[in-house]
Design a protein that fits this description.
Low-confidence stretches: none
Number of domains: 1
Largest sheet: 3 strands, mixed
Radius of gyration: 17 Å
CATH class: Alpha Beta
Helix content: 10-25%
Structural class: alpha/beta
Distance between the termini: 6 Å
Order of helices and strands: EHEEEHEEEHEHEEEEEHEHE
Strand content: 25-35%
Shape: globular
CATH topology: L-arginine/glycine Amidinotransferase, Chain A
Number of strands: 15
Number of helices: 6
């Protein structure tokens, strides 16, 4: 089976992106595009077949394709993003997924961002955040139940998405910021705490046995390596200014 990674080029309007927890800092568009290309190159080196969608000039946040869909082994769920400005992003993502998966949709009044969904085996942990609501979480649970998945709602505090607070870095190991999520939710899993001076450092992308990780957080990077986690570092500093991170920029699945 081939590992597919769907990405989308950086929008020329990214400086008009939605911001919730960060203050606006000018994004260097040429540098953001360069960093995104290097991110895609990294995925290719890790064995992904990268399918790159063209940029969307009128959708500033559209490089963050993760929020538009949840791709499971059996099905794809097209989300309904919590930020109204982002809802048109799902159209092209649905088109990109149709060759690979049967598609279902989150419908009003539900809202759901893919960045709030952390899959660990057959459990989907879903952040009850400012972008995903109870109706969206309930719809997701109903849609995936026939395929044997269990949905667990998770409270998050002080961050945009669940994956801002916790991600998977090995088969049974998480990276998390316990100020933003309660580690006791994740029964049976070990975890690594982010370094205290790097609260935004919990986002990492596990591709097979390799963890793709931002160069922005060297102290937490050191903690990962000391725990035996195989890390490949990428610079996504410009995308971080848009409240993005390494999981946000791709949808990765087997086909």
């Amino acid at each position: 089976m081939m590992q597919i990674a769907i990405t989308r080029q950086v929008s020329p309007s990214i400086n008009q992106c939605e911001l919730t927890y960060l203050t606006r800092d000018a994004i260097d568009l040429p540098l953001a595009k360069q960093q995104h290309r290097q991110y895609e190159d990294c995925l290719e080196k890790l064995g992904c077949e990268v399918h790159t969608l063209p940029s969307e000039e009128n959708l500033p946040d559209s490089v963050f394709v993760e929020d538009a869909a949840i791709v499971l082994g059996e099905v794809g769920i097209i989300t309904r993003p919590g930020a109204e400005s982002r809802r048109p992003e799902v159209v092209s993502i649905a088109g990109a997924l149709l060759p690979f998966r049967e598609i279902f949709y989150i419908k009003p009044p539900g809202t759901l961002d893919g960045g709030d969904v952390l899959q660990i085996g057959k459990t989907l942990y879903v952040g009850n955040s400012g972008r995903s609501n109870n109706a969206g979480i309930a719809q997701l649970a109903e849609l995936v139940m026939p395929f044997g998945y269990n949905v667990v709602g998770v409270d998050v505090y002080g961050c945009l998405h669940l994956k801002s607070a916790v991600t998977q870095v090995a088969h049974d190991v998480l990276l998390l910021n316990r100020a933003w999520v309660n580690p006791d939710v994740f029964l049976g899993l070990d975890y690594i705490d982010v370094h205290p001076v790097e609260p935004h450092a919990a986002n990492a992308l596990l591709v097979d046995q390799t963890t793709v990780y931002s160069t922005t957080y060297p102290l937490t990077h050191d903690r990962l390596e000391k725990k035996g986690i195989h890390v490949v570092a990428v610079d996504v500093s410009e995308l971080i200014k848009a409240e993005g991170a390494v999981t946000c920029c791709s949808l990765i699945f087997l086909a």
